[in-house]
Amino acid sequence: MLVNASEMLKKAKAGHYAVGQFNINNLEWTKAILLTAQENNSPVILGVSEGAGKYMAGYKTVVGMVKGMIEELNITVPVALHLDHGSYEGCLKCVEAGFTSIMFDGSHYPIEENVAKTKELVKICAENNMSLEAEVGSIGGEEDGVIGMGECADPKECKMVADLGIDFLAAGIGNIHGKYPANWQGLSFETLDAIQQLTGDMPLVLHGGTGIPADMIKKAISLGVSKINVNTECQLSFAEATRKYIEEGKDQQGKGYDPRKLLAPGFEAIKATVKEKMELFGSVNKA
Ligand SMILES: [Zn+2]
């Protein structure tokens, strides 16, 4: 069932669990995530970065694929199709293409401009029954060429943006996209706590979920995080399983070169990673 992410995240915040956003790159990724969500009776958010959208031949292609799969695979759990780190122009394209949710990443603008553009998108999302995520304080690491320093968001700025009518808020609390460096300082729970105290019921989003220790994830959920983005971890699982298949020479045995066979171990690895995350986040049986 394709829905926006507003209800599922309100329920998650009230129920003290988090819904995973898993980024998709192709048909295998999408199918693996949808089937795992259904098998675990979990709500799910499919994340699409602008780069991945381009890779998959455009947002309309993505919408067609996701809608088709939901119908043909009988996916009845709530699924949101969400633009990840969208530019203002990218957001407008996804509205037109039929996404159900968007993230406007205005974190690199001065706060006044971030606010002005977010306000415009609040109006557009309301008219189109879509949910909207905004970001305050840039998130560390690299995503589609945008490099953030992993700063901590100003709780007062978070409150200001939360009050614009958005549905959920991503705030930097020392989290980083991609792999965490060995000298990473960990999440700033002090910042998270201060943000939640000011923003109340607003579901908070944790980006860069790959490699954050399980106890930190649980603590973040207890402090109001209701959506956790996982991207790199599925990529690593997929690559590892695919490498093993090739290294074992299985592509050279029989019809092991058949793409449906060649991509199967990676597909199963994504499923296992997604299941593990749904269990950790507490979203199993919350559909
Ligand atoms: Zn992110």
Verbal overview:
This protein has 287 residues and is an alpha/beta fold. It has a single domain (6-281), classed as Aldolase class I (TIM Barrel, Alpha-Beta Barrel), CATH 3.20.20.70. 47% of the residues lie in helices and 17% in strands. It contains twelve helices and ten strands. It has an eight-stranded parallel beta barrel, surrounded by nine helices. Strands 6-7 form a two-stranded antiparallel sheet. Strand 9, helix 9 and strand 10 (225-230) form a beta-alpha-beta unit. Helix 2 runs parallel beside helix 4, helix 5 (88-97) runs parallel beside helix 6 and helix 7 runs parallel beside helix 8 (189-199). The radius of gyration is 18 Å and the shape is globular. 47% of the residues are buried. Zinc ion is lined by residues 85, 139, 143, 177, 207, 229. The site of zinc ion (ZN) has 6 residues, from loops.
